[in-house]
# Entry
Amino acid sequence: MQADFFAKKRRTTFIILFIMIAITYGAIMITEFDVIKGLTSIPAAIHWGLTNFYPDAKSLERLPNIWSKLQETLLISIASATIAAFFALIFAIFGSNTTKINGFFSVVCRGIATLFRNIDVAAWALILLFAFGQSALTGYFALFFVSFGFLTRAFMETIDEVGSSSVEALRATGASYFSIIMNAVIPSSISQIMSWLLFMIETNVRSATLVGLLTGTGIGFSFDLYYKSLNYNAASLVVIMIVASILVIEFLSNYVRRVIL
# Structure
């Protein structure tokens, strides 16, 4: 019996692996991608990066402007995540199976969260460009919509996981809906909610660079400007600043998670 189970599992694994190889080979044939040429070009790409893509003394003169753009990007990322978290918590409470008012509102809230979550941030930026043009507001709303969809779904699952027992206890005592939310749901899930919010801020900082390329704002626009003008030294400084800021934010968020969890 056990031997048949492992044999069936091996066959399934082999079939999946075969399908993946077939799809990869088909993609290579359709796109006419030269695998050998691609692999042999890696050393040349590394050599070019080491000899051209590094900050020099002249690029350091642009550091104040780069830092200003980076601050703009960080503030937009944090603001979009925190404000989205406020609205996401409201939708999550109405959409959660533990705290839902009725099935209709729950389905509506879950549907809205799914819609906003499954549209990529780049797609949101392109859609919003028609309404707001190339501005910081476009980048803010693109990050806000994605953050709202993701956090709503994450908060729903958090409430369902950690809030059910305390909610049932308060319901048994005849507590009102508002009292249940304030005294059971939020206190029991606040640490996980804060953890998800910190994760969203990290994600937004990474996504904001791409959004800046599309909307012509923030640190992404600075990189695009320097790179297209062949100022690779300044472009490399932008990349270093982005990486450094992401590492600092990740370190701080991990520290906060350890404190609150």
